[in-house]
Amino acid sequence: LLTAISVERCVGVLWPFWCRSHRPKFLSAAVCSLLWALACVLAGLVYFVCDLGHSEHCWTVLGTLCFLNFCLFTPFMVLSNVIVFTKLRCSPWQQHPARLYRVIFLTVFFFLLFGIPLSIQIFLNFFVYLKLVFEICLLLASVNSSINPVIYVLVGSYRMSTFRGFVRVALQRVFEDR
């Protein structure tokens, strides 16, 4: 999904008029649905082939996941974000907020830092299995799954005092007695 969002943002920046007038209305929903379906199929394959069947085809399924993540989705995501960043940075006719640059940079940076190690580790498991390293990579992947909302909240807050007030109010709502 991060790749789809990045590519859509890139297309919107490169061809803004086409996106507003000619882009199919339900393209985003269709692409996201297809990606969710692909994720469900691949997760089901991992579950049935690796967890239930203990089959020799488990490494083939995991290798396919690694290939899709590391060789297909990651390059598209990184390339589209670099294009967006470069296009917005070099655009002389329009001022873009610094927050957008921070969100783009932090999203790509944390994905590369936390999301990619698991794909690399699964690939390396074909040659040598290190349980501790694998568990650390799983932890990093979990952090990657939850880091984007934190990035959006932190970058989106105008002042830290506003953010602290928001967190304080949210915590008071959670812990108040009703």
UniProtKB/TrEMBL annotation:
Protein name: Proto-oncogene Mas
Native source organism of the sequence: Chlamydotis macqueenii (Macqueen's bustard)
PANTHER family, sorted: G-PROTEIN COUPLED RECEPTORS FAMILY 1 PROFILE DOMAIN-CONTAINING PROTEIN-RELATED (PTHR11334:SF68), MAS-RELATED G-PROTEIN COUPLED RECEPTOR (PTHR11334)
Gene Ontology CC terms: plasma membrane
Keywords: G-protein coupled receptor, Membrane, Receptor, Transducer, Transmembrane, Transmembrane helix
Chain ranges of the G-protein coupled receptors family 1 profile domain: 1-152
Topology of the protein relative to the lipid bilayer: Multi-pass membrane protein
An annotated Gene Ontology molecular function: G protein-coupled receptor activity
Entry keyword annotation includes Nuclease: no
Localization (cell): Membrane
